[in-house]
Amino acid sequence: MDVASLHAPLVRRTIETINAGRLDEFMALFVRDATVVDGPPYHGHAAIRTWAQRETFGVQMHIDVIHEKSAEGTAVEVNVTSTGGYSGPGTFLFTIRGGLIERLVIR
User: Fold this and answer.
1) Phi, psi of 20 (to 5 degrees)
2) Where would one find coiled-coil regions in this protein (predicted)?
């Protein structure tokens, strides 16, 4: 599935910023008190930026979308595969508030 065909614009922008290596634009997609759960939780912009630099942008991660399971309301689930620091399949669960990411769970 092409990233451009994702139904949720925020999810599309998130994956595009990761693939383009644009950390500042990625961070602008999160509410200030957001949480990312990738094993342990990372709460707030400073913790998320540190996590993203180490686990995503610092290893030149590239994400391909396999399937968009849900794009209704404030919850979006996307199955992905990635290369870079972590290679393999995964699921991104987005919770959206006010047009920004409130919570991102990666499993």
Assistant:
1) -90, -5
2) none
Cβ atoms 96, 75 nearer than 8 A = yes
Looking at the structure, give the CATH architecture of the domain made up of residues 3-106. Roll (3.10)
Dist CA 69 CA 2 (whole Å): 14
pTM score: 0.92
Decide: helix, strand or coil at residue 62. strand
Residue 105's nearest CA partner among 31, 40, 28, 24 is 40
CA torsion sign, 105 to 39 to 36 to 87?
negative
- pLDDT, one tens digit per residue, over 63-82 is 999 998 876 678 999 999 99
Delimit the domains of the chain by residue range.
3-106
